Amino acid sequence: MNNFSQFHGLITHYKIGALCMNIIEHELKRYDLWQDELEKKSKAYILYAVSLSVSAQPVALYLLLNLAEDTRTELKMRNKNIVHLLVKTMDRDNEELLVLVVSFLKKLSIFLENKNDMAEIDTVEKLARLVPCEHEDLLNVTLRLLLNLSFDTGLRNKMVQVGLLPKLTALLELDLLSSDCAVWELVLESLILRWLWFYSDVYESSDLRECWLCMQRSWLLRLQVRTVEVKRCSESHKQIVMCILYHISMDDRSKSMFAYTDCIPQLMKMVFEHGEERIDSELISFCINLAANKRNAHIICEGNGLKMLMKRALKFKDPLLMKMIRNISQHDGPLKQLFVDYVGDLAAQIGLDEDEEFVIECLGTLANLNIPDLDWELLLREYNLVPYLKDHLKPGSAEDDLILEVVIMIGTVSMDDSCAVMLAKSGIIPALIELLNAQQEDDEFVCQIVYVFYQMVFHQATRDVIIKDT
Question: What is the value of pTM for the model shown?
Answer without folding.
Answer: 0.80
